[in-house]
User: Fold this.
Amino acid sequence: MTKVALITGITGQDGSYLAELLLEKGYEVHGVKRRASSFNTQRIDHLYVDLHENNVHFKLHYGDLTDSTNIIRIIQEVQPDEIYNLGAMSHVKVSFDSPEYVANVDGIGTLRILEAVRILGLTHKTRIYQASTSELYGGLEENKNEKGFYDENSPFYPRSPYGVAKIYGFWITKNYREAYNMYACNGILFNHESPRRGETFVTRKITMATAKIALGKQDCLYLGNLNAQRDWGHAKDYVEAMWAMLQQEKAEDFVIATGKTTCVRDFVRMAFAECGIELAFSGNAENEIATVVVCNNPEFQIEIGKTVVKIDPEYYRPTEVDLLIGDPVKANTKLNWKPKYDLGLLVKEMVTSDLKKALNNEI
Ligand code: NDP
Ligand code: GDR
Assistant:
């Protein structure tokens, strides 16, 4: 029997990798896409099949997590075995600008999915994955476990409207699991990136700028807090864990992380080093800059001493999460999950992809 999956957020970074993975596994994949005035399906266009052909395993439905009527209708029509609720306004900084919207989509949107499954009498058939996040922890030092990591038992202390909305999503998922015996679980995923990462998240912003600066197409990269530390993995590895969570005997919550943390400044260093460019950082806080000290790649005509990174306080957040590092031991043992990528490989893949795009004037 072909399994049927429904993915909200299918047009996003994770949705696109997850759709590929499920299609490879033989699933029939349905996705919710939002109506937009310009195309928003670039990440999944390669999966699209004309619905007039036979044996179509991939179908998109117009919808929005703010609209219960439409969520109920889609779930009724699709009768999914598995729902992956990845749809969200996922940018932490932007959540300070539109906090009510984020609460509606990221918080109540999760409730709408769970409630639709319950109303439609699908609680015994449909398994639900909720995209929870390391932002729930808020980076409070005292809440780390004795090994110095955040794990499934660490207390939460969200530091943004995004984190606060996602904490509702976390608890309502857990509550529906306990109240109605639903198979619903939270993946508490730490940051994960890829060449498909949205262009305003820090890693992608850095790799795009690195490529364009190396090619002489951009002058300088403006960033916010260079001291922030994140546990960065590759999205391709992380969608494997989402799937594995829905294949267990019993629904449980899992932390997915690499167990290593790196600061934004070092990510910048690594990205430029991929192009053979060595940087020196000087100054501090709002005056910090990075200048080129060595360029040993003859393809790039970059001037030694050129300032390529500056600080723009516009990118600071009203409340910041200083450091995140996750303990993936439960996922390692129970899901047999281990990432294939390390940070070096991730940076290399992102810079290589952005160099190609910059050369083709695609970014
Ligand atoms: P993206 O921002 O790349 O994708 C978000 C997706 O949600 C897009 O498809 C977007 O559609 C869709 N969406 C936004 N608003 C709505 C709405 N109102 N109704 C329906 N769909 C909507 O995020 P990622 O792929 O990186 O992340 C996937 C999920 O995982 C998100 O919930 C995120 O919060 C969470 N997460 C991500 C982590 C990461 O490091 N990437 C870490 C932990 C959790 P459109 O394309 O039209 O904008
Ligand atoms: P984050 O990712 O907030 O961790 O949320 P982001 O890449 O936006 O920021 C990471 C850290 O970098 C610092 N930073 C900057 N960030 C951005 N975006 N732009 C800048 O110019 C910049 N300069 C420094 C930030 O202050 C922050 O400390 C991501 C999202 O995918 C969430 O949806 C997800 O839940 C979490 O990861 C886990």
Remarks:
- DSSP finds ten helices and 15 strands in the chain.
- The domain at 4-195+232-260+322-341 is CATH 3.40.50.720 (Rossmann fold).
- The first strand starts at residue 4 and ends at 8.
- Residues 90, 92-93, 133-135, 190-191, 200-202, 205, 223-225, 228, 230, 264, 315, 317, 320-321 surround guanosine-5'-diphosphate-rhamnose (ligand 2) (CB under 6 Å).
